[in-house]
Amino acid sequence: MEVNKDEALRCLQIAKNHLSLGNLNSARKFTKKSISLYPTPDAKTLLKTIESTSFSEIDENEAPASSFSSSREHIQGRQPRDYTPEQSEAVKRIRNCGVYEYYEVLGLDKDASDADIKKAYKKLALLMHPDKNGAPGADEAFKMISKAFQVLNDPQKRKLFDEYGADPDSRGTNLPNQDFVNSRYKDFSNGMVFTDEITPEELFEMFFGGRGFNSATYVGRGFRGGRFTTTRRTSPPNGEDDQTTPGWLQLFQLLPLILLFIFSFSSSLFNSSQDQYPTFSLQRNPPYTEQRFTHSFQIPYFVNPNDFNMFEQNPRILRRYEEAVETSYVKQLQQYCNSEKIVQKQKLNEALGWYINLDERKLEEAKKMKMPNCEKLNELAELVSQSR
Q1: Last residue of a domain, which of 29, 56, 83?
Q2: Rg (Cα) of the chain, in Å, rounded?
Q3: What is the per-residue pLDDT for 19?
Q4: Is 226 helix (H, G, I), strand (E, B) or coil?
Q5: For residue range 104-158, what is the model confidence (pLDDT) as tens digits?
Q6: CA dist., res. 277 & res. 44, Å (int)
Q7: Which part of the chain is the J domain (predicted)?
Q8: Which of 18, 19, 342, 367 could covalently link to 191 via disulfide, CB atoms 3.0 to 4.6 Å apart?
Q9: Count of H helices and E strands in the chain?
Q10: pLDDT value at position 213?
Q11: Spatial distance between the Cα atoms of 206 and 388, rounded to a whole number of angstroms
């Protein structure tokens, strides 16, 4: 039914995510659920691919029926899981690799191409599949292969890993703050989608030297002083928890909140005798007709000239006022940039067709898609980096 189409597409995307991680059973489950809700050609093709990977490609010498029987018996424990010397040696080699030795896990050099990465993953995944490899440690080796592929197959994650040698998915790796701009903002021109969204609070921290994630309250199109708020970062979209943080590090992470409280308290005392801040707009809308530019980064904004004349005589208040303007500008750019990335990701997925019906022309168009707001955000980040 048409009413179930959205839910069917959601299940299909979940199935694709499971397949990319090597979770064939889960991928099959969600693909079948998608088809039961609303059958689509993409879902039917994906199911054929999953069945082929699970039963036929693992052992080309076995017929599909016998492969299914063998896999089922392995799962149900009716017979021991056999393995070959080759499988055993491969498991030992992978298990001897370090946690973050992703290239070594896949048996690749650091200059390996995307095609080499996919080829190595497919070969090893078939060799290590739990249904066909009963060697001790095969399950763990299979997970290591999937993790290595997940990182190296993603351009942004691979770039971060090449630079820092740590898991880019984990905040516990503490990537250097001084390289934050380079690691998160470069390469907008190559048309690739970011994997880790940068939050406005992170760029705000870069703007003002890490005073904590405090920002002046944004009211409508304007700003009023004397009130501050903190923003907590959301959990990862996949629902996975971060790695456990040591107690001393948790205490250290609370320090900005303590400083924020002190700063907010002192700010409230300072502002108690001040007149209310005038509002502003990032677009020219009456009565915001006078265009101004922030002193630090030349961000354009508009004010009501009748409210602003006396206010601008106080440099200290004006500086803090313009910090709020810049923060609002960053949030707006981030919102627009996120929309552009969603559109590009949809085009990439449509062009890739899960590598089954690859459309090279559409893929190239998606990679070269113009993202003006992301480019502005990139330029602003480079400007911030140069000014530090």
Answers
A1: 56
A2: 26
A3: 76
A4: strand
A5: 999 999 999 988 998 888 888 888 877 778 888 888 888 888 888 888 988 888 8
A6: 60
A7: 101-165
A8: 367
A9: 16, 5
A10: 34
A11: 9
Residue 168's CB: how many other CB atoms inside 10 A? 21
Phi, psi of 166 (to 5 degrees): -130, 170
Closest by Cα among 215, 233, 251 to 328:
215
CA dihedral (317, 319, 325, 330) positive or negative: negative
89 belongs to a structural domain: no
347 closest CA partner among 374, 370, 321, 319? 370
What HEC string does 66-83 produce?
A: HHHHHHHHHHHCCCCCCC
What is the model's pLDDT at position 64? 38
- Measured at the CA of 155, the angle between CA 150 and CA 160, to 5 degrees, comes to 85
> What do you get for the CA distance between the two ends of the chain, in Å?
57
Strands of the chain (E only): list them: 214-219, 222-230, 280-281, 290-293, 300-303
Residue with tokens 């080699």: 93
Strands 214-219 and 222-230: antiparallel
Contact (CB, 8 A) for 353 and 327: no
Look up tokens 């990335």; give the residue: 341
Enclosing domain of residue 14: 2-56
Per-residue tokens: 185: 């903002």
In a domain, 80, yes or no: no
* 272 falls within a domain: yes
Question: From the CB of residue 281, how many other CB atoms can be counted at a distance below 10 Å?
Answer: 20
Calpha distance 51→55 (Å, rounded)? 6
